Amino acid sequence: MQSDPLVNSDPSWFKDAVFYEVFVRAYADSNGDGIGDLAGLASKLEHLQWLGIDAVWMLPICPSPLRDDGYDVADYTAIHPDYGNLDDFKALVAVAHRLGLKVVVELIPNHTSDQNPWFQASRDPGHPEHTKYRDWYVWSDTDQKYKDARIIFIDSEPSNWTYEPLRGQYYWHRFFDHQPDLNYDNPEVQREMLRVVQFWMDLGVDAFRVDATPYLIEREGTSCENLPETHDYLKRVRSFVDGYAPGTMLLSEANQWPEDVRPYFGGDLQNPEVPGDEFHMNFHFPVMPRIYMALARADRTPIVEILARTPPLPKGCQWGIFLRCHDELTLEMVTPEERKFMWDFYAPEPRMRLNLGIRRRLAPLLGNDRGRIELANSILFTLPGSPVIYYGDEIGMGDNIWIDDRGGVRTPMQWNAGRGAGFSGADPSKFYFPLIDDDTFGYQQVNVAQQRADPDSLLNHMRTMMAVRKANPAFARGDFKMLEPENRAVLAFLRTWDGVNLLAINNLSTEPQMVALDLAAFAGSTPVDLFTGERLPAVTAEPWSLALGPSGYRWLSIAAA
Hints:
By secondary structure, the chain is an alpha/beta fold.
């Protein structure tokens, strides 16, 4: 297959990219049924281009019962009728590429819906295709196998096994009981998933966000996570993608500690000079809660410690980092004491919590404090990794904790103050979820149109931050060096690339702070503010001091001595 010359001309495009995660159902409704769709999203892509986004990542769009917002896949090679059809998808890709945007789709290889025809045939010995699909899922006569595997959804699932009376056996599922796991010990399952990948590459997608990668293979006496056989198959996927559509990027969702995620990049674990041969990108999940922990405590230590624990990446690879996403703010990889602190600080009401996490959006988490929201994004845009923005966070959207499960952070996008918030022409009572309509985060006060017209809005400031980041590629590609001044309320670090040195300084406190930094290596240089062009006092061999306002931050260029 020939790759798209516009989209894939630079195989490392993802290193400089800002990603935008969008729930298609929530973004824009083109046909007035109260449900967002592909045509609606296509009509709003100019907003993303204007904002400075490089790639749009869509949550699942395939046919599904939607018991898990599409992560329960019923058909891997079609479009859910709520969202349109394959022609609508092709049209969206064409618009995106015309605007210079990359298209990222979900690949959900670990499990399907229990309504998937494969599972229906597998579960029923009387089904005409039972023989073909009999071993496409993980079946057992007992629910006592793989007892060392943790239960992920502890709020809803008492076991990783569910009994199927038609077959008279138990089936394995790492997530909901309506999401049976595929059997990757079956070569035909492996081949079929490669055919799925090929199908979407033929439609012009630029990247896959690959869901739940650690769980593909099960072995007795293990956690059933991060197994060598899983990595063997993922290397096969990467080899296939590289051969079929060079430049297509693979992004893994491996919600693990950084040392456990490192193998998902592939390459040589002992030699980062060897290029990766699994995923181009992986999410760095543990960074996210530690940003919030550092803000709550006005102490950089949690961020310093997790980054010190993060191994170097192989050539050609990048972390993906985010402040919020479509799921809960996970607190799996913190201590029980830290989890309690985070719950007490950020989610004092039980309805704000889910599983081992917090189901709130960015702005409510930070008390709708504009300075804190900007500061959090300053950290996001300058730490190592490609940032991901969750739809609506660019305007400070709120959430609805009275919608069950994760639905509270998946409400309709707020485009304007008119009836229906510009999301849909349908009667709002017919919307898939109600609009946010409170005095603080309601669409009448928080919307794109209003903020685009206000040069001092959060939206316009986010646009500026992205433009400055893009103009200074050391933030995307540079080496990283943590500075550790005496004042722990200040997070400061250097990013260096191609002879350019950038200094990011962040005041984690809501009080003014002074910081003294050891910048002796840059003695004689004059730091320059990347936002304003202001020239700051020259650096000497002595500690260089700077005053920061509450939740203040500075992005500076600084020349080597």
